[in-house]
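Why show two proteins at once? Because comparison is the fastest way to build intuition. When a single record is shown, students tend to memorize it. When two are placed side by side, the eye starts asking what differs. So, the first record is below.
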Amino acid sequence: MSTHRPLIYLIAGEESGDRLGGPLMRELRDLLDGEVTFAGVGGPMMMDAGLKSLFPMQELSVMGLTEVLPRLPGLIRRINQVTADIRARRPNLLITIDAPDFCFRVAKRLKGEGVPLVHYVAPTVWAWRPGRAKKVSAFLDHLLALLPFEPPYFEAHGLACTYVGHPVLESGADKGNGSAFRAARGIGADAPLMVLLPGSRAGEAGRLLPVFTETLQRLRATVPGMHIVIPTVPATREKVENAIAGLGMQVHLVGTDREKFDAFAAADVALAASGTVALELAMAGTPAVIGYRMAPVTAFLARRLVTSPYANLVNIILGREAVPERVLEDCQPDLLAAEVERLFTSSAAREAQQQAYRDALSALGYGRIQPNRRAAETVLAILRTKENGAA
């Protein structure tokens, strides 16, 4: 096939990858004037952009050693299925998105078979297992990086790596309507409001919800009349509903990005899992406390392998703890509650964190770059290079 109507195969294994894949597909369609076909595995956003998923993406949404191992036979079957489908379709290009436990196994099998292998989201070699940079360079053809300091780690091993920017910068997280959110839910303008974000994966939420709900109980006396908003995704909705049953607090569940961003704008404080949501909160200017736990075996390995002193992306970018982090054994209700209470009561603490947000976002090119477009343009350049090389 030529790039006049290329077939692009995409694989996303979790909700965060789906959020990258959907906008990327739309930008590619725009750049190619609609003359493009997509196939692969993805979630709602990618399907809305025109993908017919080979199987439900949720089957791949696992993280951590103890979560992957029990499901390894099923994952291997899906790896075999996807690899066979790619070989049968012979796409012009394969884009794997995050989910390295699955995506890298597929890419390794396809190395040298004439399909350019592009991976979107660089492995965090700057945080742990730096040897991965050399390993992925052995089978990938191109890497799309979200953070500006990532390309040199991979270029040192001969892997082409393009910094495209973090797509959260175009998410709309900075455009929430806080007053409308409060009015629609009967929350007074001065009522204390906290957003609770236990993560988008079922296992992650299952570990954090007990800690977070106990934190809420401890805050009941010190922050009276507090309202709680919890954004959910299908993978976590039931766990959230079970966790808040009988909590005896004013809890509002929201399910769309628009509602979530409105809630960010309305909130005084957030208590959140570590992840991309850190940048969404930064864009909204919502002061936050980060809590994170891993499965025991994964945590054991993390303590010995992780080299980054921080988990939160804002802190990583700035090289200091601007956003309070309480992770692993420090992720305890009393410690989290103390940090949340401090943000509720100290305007200086809130303002300091908001200034840190502005500094971190500036370093990422907020307001100056269009990450989704950059990613699509890079993919199109790879397609054209392949076509010209074959001509």
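Second record. Ask yourself what differs from the first in the token line.
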Amino acid sequence: MFYTRGAVLPQLLKSRILVLDGAMGTMIQQRKLTEQDYRGLPTNKRFENHPVDLKGNNELLNLTHPEIILDIHRQYLAAGADLIETNTFGATSVAQDDYRMPELAREMNIAAAKLAKQACEEFSTPDKPRFVAGAVGPTPKTASISPDVNDPGARNVTFDQLRTSYREQVEGLYEGGADVFLVETIFDTLNAKAALFAIDEFFDETGVRLPIMISGTVTDASGRILSGQTVEAFWNSLRHAKPLTFGLNCALGATLMRPYIAELAKVCDVAVSCYPNAGLPNPMSDTGFDETPEVTARLLDEFSKDGLVNLVGGCCGTTPAHIKAIADAVAKRSARSWDAYKEVA
């Protein structure tokens, strides 16, 4: 089965190290938007009387202030990003229920993907095509872990609820123009399985096929994701999805993430990705994190020099300056080699 979109990505990942963009949330926070801004007031009256606070609902900005999201995408592309993520980390009905906006999830995803596609089309050249990564976040709920310490069997979401919510999201992302689906910041493998199941259903029923990228998050020095798996177990649990890339993002800075990326580089027979936070949180910093662009770029350059990665970028606390420094640093490095990529059957 050939890819409907993103067909050249496997070859590009073999030819050079690709660069993903940086943090959307960090860039939005720097604009110091108000509740009125999130609602789109005074020009957009659509959400004027919504009954709960909307400040912090970054995905709503796809509808109320698309020019802000488009500008952020353009900044990352100008910095050298090959792929940019849609502003859809929390654009599922499960996540949007916190703002009493579950019915807007599909609309948010379509709008976000269209904005990212517009930016990519502006910056793409024959020598450097740009791609839209449809961001599929973990949701604020977990299918594996009880929210009640006194009731280990309790769950606040079911597999089928997640599957339905993710299916709506991937449909919207595809309709808006996503080139690849990025299931990211996975802290619960069961949540990720629901997302991947929804993607497979979508592929089977529509006949389309996009590359899939998978990225988990190791939450502390235990080397495990929140639901308890080591990174090797995490890989073996999800390798059946035949992802184009597999790796880690968020939670840790590059220094603390290195041993886990090295472990994945040994066991993965696909491209390895790494987009860490800019070090550890620091509320005194402009970005909320410690590392300057030069520090993050140097650390990821060491990963690339040692043959550990095929795709690098930034997560929380990273900015276009970080991405430019990373792109410049890894441009001279060769891509990690791995066993021949097997096209999805």
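One difference worth noting in the second protein: Confidence is low (pLDDT under 50) at residues 340-345.
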